[in-house]
Amino acid sequence: MHGHEIKVTFQPSGRSVYVLPGTVLLEAAGRAGVILQTPCGGKGNCGKCRVRLVDAPSDPTPASVGTLSEGQIAEGYRLACCTLVDAPLVVEVPPESTFESQQQILTADSGAEVEIAPLVHKRCFELSPPSSEDARADLVRLQAALGDIRVSPALMREVPTFLRENAWKGTAVLSNHHLVSLEPGDTTGDGYGVAVDLGSTTVVGKLFDLVSGRECGVASQINPQVTFGDDVISRIMHVRENEDGLAALQAAVVECLNTIVQDLVAQAEIEAEEVYEIVLAGNSTMQQILCGYDPSALGEVPFVQAFEQAQILAASDLGLTVNAAAEVYVFPQIGSFVGGDTVAGMVAARLDRWDEPVLFVDIGTNGEIVLAKGDQLLATSTAAGPAFEGARIRQGMRAAAGAIEKVIISDDVSINVIGDAPPAGLCGTALIDAVADLLRVGIIDETGRILPVEELPAGVPDALQAQLITEGDETRFVLASAEEAAGDEAICLWQKDVRELQLATGAVRAGIQIMLRRVGVEPEAIHRVLLAGAFGNFIRRSNARRIGLLPQIAGDRIRFIGNAASLGAKLVLLSDSERAYAARLQEQAEHIDLSLDPEFQMEFGMAMIFPAADIDVCKD
Amino acid sequence: MHGHEIKVTFQPSGRSVYVLPGTVLLEAAGRAGVILQTPCGGKGNCGKCRVRLVDAPSDPTPASVGTLSEGQIAEGYRLACCTLVDAPLVVEVPPESTFESQQQILTADSGAEVEIAPLVHKRCFELSPPSSEDARADLVRLQAALGDIRVSPALMREVPTFLRENAWKGTAVLSNHHLVSLEPGDTTGDGYGVAVDLGSTTVVGKLFDLVSGRECGVASQINPQVTFGDDVISRIMHVRENEDGLAALQAAVVECLNTIVQDLVAQAEIEAEEVYEIVLAGNSTMQQILCGYDPSALGEVPFVQAFEQAQILAASDLGLTVNAAAEVYVFPQIGSFVGGDTVAGMVAARLDRWDEPVLFVDIGTNGEIVLAKGDQLLATSTAAGPAFEGARIRQGMRAAAGAIEKVIISDDVSINVIGDAPPAGLCGTALIDAVADLLRVGIIDETGRILPVEELPAGVPDALQAQLITEGDETRFVLASAEEAAGDEAICLWQKDVRELQLATGAVRAGIQIMLRRVGVEPEAIHRVLLAGAFGNFIRRSNARRIGLLPQIAGDRIRFIGNAASLGAKLVLLSDSERAYAARLQEQAEHIDLSLDPEFQMEFGMAMIFPAADIDVCKD
Question: At A360, which helix (H) or strand (E)?
Answer without folding.
Answer: strand A358-363
